[in-house]
Records
---
Amino acid sequence: MSTRRTTTERLGIHAAQANAPHESRAVTHAGAAEVEGFDPGARVTVNKAYKMYVGGAFIRSESGRYFQSRGASVAGSADPDVVNVPRGSRKDARDAVLAAKNAGDGWAARTAYNRGQILYRLAEVMESRRDELATSLERGGQDAEQAAREVEGAIDRAVYYAGFCDKYQALVASLNPVAGPHFGFSWPEPMGVVAVVAPERPALLGLLSTVLPLIAGGNTCVVVAGSEDPRTAVVWCECLATSDLPGGVVNLLTGQASEMAPHLAKHREVVAMDVWSADADLRAAAEREGSGNVKRVRTHGHDETERLPSDAGQGLGFIERFLETKTVWHPVGV
Amino acid sequence: MSGELKKTSEGDAVVPALDFGRAWEYAPSPEATDHVHIAPRQELFIGGRWVAPRSGKYFDTSSPSTEEKLAEVAEADERDVDDAVQAARRAYDRYWSKMRGGERAKYLFRIARAIQEKSRELAIVESMDGGKPIKESRDVDLPLAAAHFFYHAGWADKLDYAFQGRAWRSLGVAGQIIPWNFPLLMAAWKLAPALACGNVVVLKPAETTPLTALLLARIIEEAELPPGVVNVVTGAGATGAALAAHAGVDKVAFTGSTDVGKRIQRAVAGTKKKLTLELGGKAANVVFADAPLDQAIEGIINGIYFNQGHVCCAGSRLLVEESVHDLVVRKLEDRIATLRVGDPLDKNTDVGAINSKMQLEKIRELVAAGEEEGAERHTAPCALPTKGYFFAPTFFTGVAQSSRIAREEIFGPVLSVMTFRTPDEAIEKANNTMYGLSAGIWTDKGAKIFWMAQRLKAGVVWGNTYNKFDPSSPFGGYKESGFGREGGRQGLLAYTELA
């Protein structure tokens, strides 16, 4: 652990102070708290530690910092209302870029059919975990009906992109009728490592809508999850981890986008960036800092985020914007 | 060292140096220029009128081959740029955005035809102002410029097919900044797709080569495009910066150096402007031992000495499989001895004048760095004209990957030769650059070409050929060679917003 960090930062005291103190226990008389109906014979539930997902492993921040994510109570859920979530650091972002870079060649070299099957497998895993995903969304503030609908939309989006993995090439590639004795054609290739500042809302469908087209196109990515409902993003990563997706293809960081995104914009191994749910300053910073390696930076305003849940939130354009075109020429002759 | 290499090294007996004696001397064959008139003072083309710059300032454009002044050219400042952007906006609102695509198309067809009709005049002025050999301006730049307008004209009423049913719209005012290496052709690459997609343009040509863009403006005037649809503002870097920074510009398109490209990217950050960049390169031209070597030599020569090496996609790093290195070097020495360097207007000239004194100094500096870093210099034994900016075709052997001449874009007739032993090593070395514009592969095996093409991080890959261009063929880079494509269906994305 770095010695440059102050003790308070290391212990995450800043982050804890940002959240109001926990008030679920009523004070009945001076000096003692009581829980109504406490049953000493009952089973104690096992609480999950929420972690970031990097290189196929669930990890804490190297910085040791955390922030507290507060959620609504959901009947029947074992999860506590308040959980500690890693507050990712610049070093975490660098590690995630390395994981994404290392996974890049292997992922791009998979057949399109294989990528499609893996995304379909993701849909299968999500379907079987739909209750868990919906509960997480409810805890993040959705009502039960909204949550169920969002999960269904997210699963359907996974199916949509599963079927796109071996189609977009035919739609964006070209045979170029050049004026001369040459055979010329252009095909799409993935750009490489793409950094994503994910939309805050919808927490699940927005995340899938931005990440899935990237990986369908053969890119790998580093995603900074929204900070309003980071739990759902982590639960989704548990689906990724069990769906044959190679580790490092999707790397998810939790914490503050304002802290990590400018650093990702400066990173020379990050070739492109997709910035959602960021304020104008952060969007401009990403565009400015991205110029260091001529990064392909896309930023999106609130109106575009609003459209994500609809059919306008999916399509060829979402894949195409993070593809490179490679043109090949060869003479024709005998 | 393999036995084969030894045989080749000793092998001056096998492949002797060619001695041409006096057989390679040609009588001069200059293109007549008497019918070309260059107006001594060139104004700005704004809102369909030729106007003097508000500052009253003019700069000289001269011929790099004679160092003689050709004309004085208006220097546009922020006020002139503002006039041009406003004229363009009016033209967009009143005319161009309201027209049917098929009608826009006919204007572009007119421009293509007029370029063909005036191609001799344009080629001569291009060679006078920029220094490129007349055979290249006549046989490459001009036909391609006309073809770009002809090709994109046809798209103007078929854009609904171009994007798989997605709704599209034009962007508005495009500010386009173009370089000096292909002055007219780059204007065509920029203008044709922008206009076809319903945008209007303010074009800023390079300060050393403004004349053909102004002749193109004359063609556009004669083709009776609505006033303000195309505006041309001449000037240097400050004019370009003012254009890129103008709040009324919806789209910035730039071709030029990676340094300037990054500055433009920073300048448009935080705005709603769309941006495409076509920047520098340091292309690997990879020659395998199984390649048809004599064809490969021609491809290497064309790859680096075409247009004096002032080509962003020039094959400036030659990667040769080790076993044929000595043979390739022997053949390259022979071949550069036959290149005719001199008067750009002479129809026999292969290598013309370096575009400017500044560029010549940059080339000399990098060549000196190559010598200092211990690479072996091979320079064509040719006499250079006493006037004008010339540099003899040169290549270096024994170049380290870390050397400046292996990393930096020289943008001149200078090639760096390196070796490799395995295809994996070739890929590793070829991709070991911040650039990613183009690459070449020379081999007899089709499967090897595709294996290489898949792994080269470059936007254009030429297999057993080099430096081929076509309006139907998307051109543009990976990595720090920029983003966006020019040409083909893919090039239309740079000038449209899709739903």
Note: Chain A has one domain: 90-331.
---
Amino acid sequence: MSHDTQEVSANDAHARGPLLLLLGSGLVWLVLSGVLALIASVQLHTPTFLASCAWFTYGHMQALQETAFVYGWLANAGLALGLWVLTRLGGEALRAGNWVTVGALFWNLGVTIALVGIVAGDATGHSLLQLPRYVQPLLLIAYGAIAVAGVLAWSGRRNETSYASQWYVFAALFLFPWLFSVAQVTLFVLPMRGVMQAVIAGWFAQGVFTLWLAPLALAAAYYVVPKVTGRVLPAYQFASLAFWVLIVVGAWTGGRHLIGGPVPAWISSLAIVACSLLVFHYLVVWLNLKGALGQGGAVMKFTSFGLLAYVIGGCADAFTSIRSFAVITQFTYFTQAQQQLALYGGVSMLFFGALYFAVPRLTGKTWASAALIGGHTTTAILGVLLLVISLGVAGWTQGQALLKPAVTFPEIAAATRPWLLLATAAYAVLLVGNLMLVVNFLQTLAAKPTVPAATLFQATSDIKETA
Amino acid sequence: MSTSSNQDPRLTQSAASDTSLLAAHEKAAGKQADEKGNYKLLPLALLFGFSGLIFWAGTYLNRFSGQFSGKIFDENSVPSTGAEVVAKIDPIVLGKKQYAAACIACHQADGKGLTGVNPPLAGSEWVNGSEERLVRIVLHGLKGPVKVLGVEYSAAAMPVFGKVAGSGYNWSDEKIAAVLTYIRQEWGNKSGPISTELVSAVRTKEGDRKEWSAEELLKIQ
Amino acid sequence: MKNGTLFFLGLFASLTVSFAVVLLANHQLGALTPYFDDGEGKAFPDRMPGVAARGQLVYRDLGCASCHTQQVRRPGFGADQTRGWGERQSVARDYIFQPFPQLGAMRIGPDLTNSAGRKPSALDAEDLMNLLYAGQGAMPAHAFLFNQVKVTGEVPAKALKLTGSAAPAAGYAIVPSEQAQTLVAYLLNLNTVYDYPESRPVVQAAAQAEGAHK
């Protein structure tokens, strides 16, 4: 019954090429988006920065950094980690690996074209969907090629029942292309009229987080936490209910940012209610994954920070969506702070944790430098905290000032300036940390393996079931 | 084993195998009551919490969704029964606007008209007198000689304003009532308002007809 | 989850049901027609003139919506009315003739829904050109929307009247490019003129709402 098994097998070696390509390109986008975000942040408090060039208006910068971060870094890393988790839990080697490679190349080509297009002025103006119209079909097809491997890994799994990570990845693999293709058709091919575009754009943007990125991040966390702690998740019998709450209710939050806007009131009321219902999902995720807190090592530190950010951010979202709060924070930097908490503090940090766990298993070597790991961990945690807090305070100040008609906009700019300077500092810190990660990654790839992979990893025993 | 300081930070070891992870969680998902047959507190607390959230959600939607109507943009309002949500329009304000749009050219901004050509409205016995006559003038127009404030206007050609055949304006009854209410309280006139119902009643009664003449009107009280 | 097919269908159903929200909204808003006012004898909203429609594309391409909103919230929800951004809430009908409504999500700068209709402080074309050229406060300068031309003979009619350190060198004039001209035409067109029935305030006690006002 109880037996020791090998941690790595030929499956990991087989999946190495495509997945490391995805991870590597993701890291390149991470650094690039960090530079773009830094420039955009500088432009907020120093409007003369790069103002003479039509390519680098703040509007372009905002669209560029968002696209590079979400469709460059988060997409590549999420797909890589998702496919890795599926193949590990499926027990079979990665099939259609060549499709993944080709898909990854075309996806990154598409994102590059998108960034050039945005600089040329073809950004669509919709949050989280700034990709120019002409590049969207290419991205959809490339995604499909990558997703083929995932679907095959699910359908070919050895175990008939499945684990929460597998549900989340499988859901993410399908929900994104459905969301994306519907948004493409209803916004660009056969555009809906007037404010309906805002409704669809909101549905898509919320869907990108709740139905695509959050599931990928949760899949990674649900895998890594019991693997490292060696214990069964305590509230696992609720995991499927939490999953379905996220999938069903998450898509109803589309009207979240249309509160008070030129849409019928029921759309935003529905979104407010949905944000509150999601609290159940966050609670169950917290109960399941809180075993990560207090553990040592980069993987668990990133995972616990990501978990805290995800849960706290989600509960804060439920609270701040209520109209009496939204009247202050709407249209301010506070919403940027919330988005950064969710995307950077939540999803990205969970990806970092899983990345540090996965790369040794994929490459068969340890990470090259412990110092760079420690540096990245510290800078990432500090950077995210500084960023979220500074943008949050800036937004709160701005929101309170907007409610007072006598306060002019130059006065608001002066009041928020110190906080925006702090936000720029935070972006700089994050960029430094990500550069450390990239250097470490490249060094790891370049290093020659010192010992055979099989001996590198201690044999694993059975998971401990709690009473 | 949980991680400790003597582990290599460059490699996080796993404490459990994938197969045991799958098997153990499959078992955990099937758990119901614990061995003693009692329900654990955790599931009950979560279920109560979830029900509470749904209850709150339902109450919030009931109160703030405007009954899911496409015409309610303010979450505090409720849809009216069938008709659109319309605030009541002040007839004087509407009437003044209508006057400025159509009547001012002939009857002038001070209501004094043009002597011999266009009759005045200020102090006019036609305006301040019988409501029935006044409504008919505007509804169907007036043609022919008419005496106003002692002055004869031989070729009066008051256009047709109501929603009747031959009308170039097709004003609603509400508009006609508003403009008449306006002129009856402007420029020193101090007569009462004209109701929309009166205009509608007159229009129903008279139907389509050609312009009134002064002697026909004088027969009406 | 044992049954893969059922799981897949569950995912599809969840997304489809959420899209039903969008479809319901489209049913309510997608067929909105202009509102015909008997008194004015015309329908509102007006379509944008062609130049202004091109200007909206320039607005979108530059990403102005990343700092400016174009949606006024209802009275009582924030200070939109007291700041003079609009006398009523923006409603869906205001946007039916805009191919790319630029609702915006941040108010780093003021709301622009009625920027051309504000009394008495609406900016005219000259003010807008100067503002775009030089920037002001947190608004960056958009000098790339203008060209510096050598003056041969008369100063061009459209040249900006700049003084002091912003003025160009002697013998040169700053002339707006076509992008700047269409953008300003668009900004001068931003004015929601009509009170639709659905936009009138809820408080029935304030029954003096006008039928329409310019």
Note: The radius of gyration of chain A is 22 Å.
